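Q: What structure does this chain adopt?
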Amino acid sequence: MADPVDDSAVTPCTLLDGRVQLVQPVDGYRVAIDPVLLAACVPALAQGRVLDVGVGTGAALGCVLARCPEIRGTGLEIYPPHAALARRMLALNSWTERAGVVEGDVTARPAPVPGSAFDWVITNPPYHGPGTVPSDAGRAGAHMEAVPLAQWLAFCVRCLAPQGQVAVVHRADRTGDILAALSAEGKVGALTVIPLWPKPGVAAKRVLITGRKGSRAPLTLHPGVVLHHPDGSFTAEAEQILRGGGGVPKLTDRGAGG
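A:
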């Protein structure tokens, strides 16, 4: 299949200190640190299959593939130009045998990917309502909550195999909604909330939330990750994730079989 990416409309980018190569639009959606932090929820020794729901240009999926050599992956993306960029990411890193990208909608029936098939589902759901995002189609598509968050997360849970694990990065003010959606009908337990503190003493704007399908283990509040020193430079624990490819500190595997 011919690569549909227009090289004049994209710029190269690297993550994890060069371990992940990707391209992103010159105008529009740009990779931030959220997908790198999301990928750090998956243990480096994880095996099986991971699904990235809303893969975008492939940043989170690429970081998982770089960190977890035994993982095979699938990215799901509704916006065709971003799906093309995610496929380019796989090709640039020689990962086309380990992972692929599916174009599809989480609301579609039949579902674009098989249910109960993935050991891990990671997702960075869109987080703005209509009228609050840039007019650029790519950026708007990445950030606009066109699908209700509860419906998006219900799809993620359906894709998990029994005892599979989910990881979400989102706005801190949606924590209650995320916990309610994941735990609906008792489907996901061992929930862990990981605040992402911008600086010491500053309220978290983002959170990571993980959980395990079928677990009855209780909720845990993680100490969180402080991202920046007061002068704006990254902390050592943030550098360990963003450049070193490490996992989220103190995030243990909870709830297996219970």
